[in-house]
């Protein structure tokens, strides 16, 4: 598999297969790879013209005269502001490491109502009589009972030993498995495939509509 | 870090490049037509696509699909005469909708608090009868007769079924068979053995109700299988043939009854009787070695069933995503099964067969990522590819006449 423009477009539209998604995520996170060789551009001038040609139709015509040069102090403020905005944007994209490597243990086993727990990288709704061990650094997601898992960024989890990507903004339902070999992780849309008797209990226990 | 910048830079250029192509090609989405297809898309969304022809062409979920909020909707809906009916749990109302280019638009509502639909029946084009269970104990069965034109409740009431049999203390309703002066309800009991683990009692139950009073007249049992039918707003499990004989399929497999040691089988309640024919059954599991869910009449004394492949799935964690479902034609008289030459399908429980005249349209999501209607010519048995669904389609969950 190679990183190219088509794959990145697919990734952005959420049309990647889980393997492709993981591949792009890893590529984005890995600063050791050489950008130029990963995205070879054989003819820079042609690419520059192509980009310019796509930008040009969106420019107002006739082109307005350039504004008079402002005093340097204003332009410095603008530049600092721009740098700050860029830094804030990049910071918001960066994974927060607070609970990346630590195993978190959540316990709602004595309760008869579900419990919301907010973390830096995810929120969970722990069902009644349920508990969970989560380490998103190692991909561990162990549940006794059931929970809703809402990632705040894309998180890789091991499902039955196989890495899968849980997507930012999606709601996942995680069920205890009686079989140690398999784990039950479903998106909210996939819940419709569960047996009706299981859906009823989940809706009741996790206050789902 | 450089790559994130490069990634967003590339995206920005790409969006700019895409814009001129999108503006002139502004697409008007079709909101009315002959057929309504309900789909789950690869971005975990739901959408409806309207089609006028299931035998050719292709339609795209992305371009032609009308997105539906996954917070409000799922595929367990009723489609009739251009309207859609579904319980909106956020407002606890049964809602009548019409399709617009953006979504389903509510036209009228009826209170339906703390209930879910187990079975629906159209007594005519204007009258919908729903059977619901309560959302707390799942043991109180109610009926609701609704005038869908005025969208008013005509009458409703509790059907006095026993709430438990031993430790089996929740109900499922599998079918309703309306006769001139009677309604026969097929049902079963479940027992939860863990937080979500459950099993089903090893008996099929039928209750005979007086119609229209819905007063309980008698209860009968049949121990040959478990869970008679299934939730018919999700998939079809029964029909009445031209002679008035009523056929239903039991579903003890893991997707419904979770009593897999008992066989999936087809049973009959003859027109002249109101109990299950003790001498008639087609033991599907014995013939194909698997369980099935879903049955549709195709006329000529035959039906299509949709069966799983236990050698392919592990448990219900991958039951829906495994390409495993096969379609068989069952001859109800000869009691023989013929497998249809179709690709393996995925998706646990789907309303994937629609019969119109001498043709059965079968929607299949196959391993090559094709999402395709197949046209089965009932008299000749010929199968040909029909309408293709593209543009991010993941599962075709319903095919209805709009």
From TrEMBL, chain A:
Annotated protein name in UniProt: FecR family protein
What organism does the UniProt record list as the source?
Parapedobacter koreensis
Automatic annotation (TrEMBL), chain B:
Ordered alphabetically, the record's keywords are:
Signal
Highest taxon above the source species? Bacteria
Signal peptide, first to last residue? 1-23
What's the protein here called?
DUF4374 domain-containing protein
What is the organism of origin for this protein?
Parapedobacter koreensis
């Amino acid at each position: 598999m190679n990183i190219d423009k088509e794959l990145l477009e697919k990734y952005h539209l959420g049309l990647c297969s889980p393997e492709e998604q993981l591949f792009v995520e890893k590529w984005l996170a890995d600063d050791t790879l050489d950008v130029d060789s990963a995205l070879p551009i054989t003819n820079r001038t042609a690419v520059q013209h192509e980009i310019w040609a796509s930008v040009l139709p969106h420019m107002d015509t006739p082109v307005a005269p350039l504004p008079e040069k402002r005093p340097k102090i204003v332009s410095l403020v603008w530049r600092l502001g721009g740098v700050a905005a860029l830094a804030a944007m990049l910071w918001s994209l960066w994974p927060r490491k607070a609970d990346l490597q630590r195993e978190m243990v959540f316990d709602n086993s004595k309760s008869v109502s579900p419990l919301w727990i907010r973390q830096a990288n995810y929120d969970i709704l722990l069902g009644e009589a349920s508990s969970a061990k989560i380490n998103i650094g190692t991909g561990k997601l162990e549940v006794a009972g059931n929970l809703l898992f809402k990632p705040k960024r894309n998180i890789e989890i091991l499902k039955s030993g196989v890495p899968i990507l849980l997507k930012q903004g999606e709601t996942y339902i995680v069920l205890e498995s009686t079989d140690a070999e398999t784990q039950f992780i479903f998106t909210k849309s996939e819940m419709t495939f569960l047996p009706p008797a299981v859906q009823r209990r989940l809706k009741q226990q996790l206050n789902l509509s | 870090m450089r790559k994130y910048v490069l990634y967003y830079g590339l995206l920005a250029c790409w969006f700019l490049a895409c814009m001129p192509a999108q503006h002139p090609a502004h697409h008007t989405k079709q909101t009315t037509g002959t057929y309504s297809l309900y789909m789950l898309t690869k971005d975990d969304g739901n959408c409806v696509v309207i089609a006028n022809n299931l035998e050719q062409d292709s339609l795209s979920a992305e371009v032609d699909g009308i997105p539906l909020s996954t917070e409000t909707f799922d595929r367990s809906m009723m489609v009739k005469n251009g309207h859609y009916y579904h319980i909106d749990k956020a407002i606890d109302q049964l809602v009548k909708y019409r399709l617009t280019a953006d979504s389903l638009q509510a036209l009228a509502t009826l209170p339906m608090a703390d209930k879910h639909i187990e079975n629906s029946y159209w007594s005519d084009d204007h009258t919908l009868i729903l059977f619901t269970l309560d959302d707390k104990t799942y043991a109180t069965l109610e009926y609701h007769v609704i005038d869908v034109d005025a969208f008013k409740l005509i009458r409703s009431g509790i059907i006095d079924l026993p709430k438990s049999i031993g430790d089996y203390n929740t109900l499922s309703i599998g079918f309703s068979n309306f006769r001139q002066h009677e309604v026969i309800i097929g049902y079963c009991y479940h027992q939860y053995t863990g937080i979500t683990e459950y099993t089903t009692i090893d008996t099929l139950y039928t209750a005979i109700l007086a119609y229209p009073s819905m007063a309980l007249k008698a209860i009968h049992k049949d121990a040959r299988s478990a869970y008679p039918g299934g939730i018919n707003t999700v998939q079809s499990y029964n029909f009445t043939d031209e002679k008035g004989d009523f056929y239903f399929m039991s579903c003890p497999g893991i997707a419904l009854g979770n009593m897999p040691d008992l066989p999936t089988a087809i049973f009959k309640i003859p027109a002249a009787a109101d109990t299950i024919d003790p001498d008639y059954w087609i033991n599907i599991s014995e013939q194909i070695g698997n369980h099935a869910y879903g049955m549709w009449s195709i006329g000529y004394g035959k039906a299509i069933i949709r069966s799983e492949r236990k050698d392919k799935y592990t448990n219900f964690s991958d039951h829906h995503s495994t390409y495993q479902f096969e379609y068989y034609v069952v001859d109800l008289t000869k009691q023989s099964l013929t497998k249809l030459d179709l690709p393996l399908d995925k998706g646990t429980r789907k309303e994937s067969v629609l019969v119109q005249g001498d043709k059965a349209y079968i929607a299949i999501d196959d391993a090559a990522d094709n999402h395709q209607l197949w046209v089965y010519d009932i008299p000749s048995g010929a199968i040909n590819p029909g309408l293709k669904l593209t543009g991010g389609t993941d599962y075709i969950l319903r095919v209805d006449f709009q």
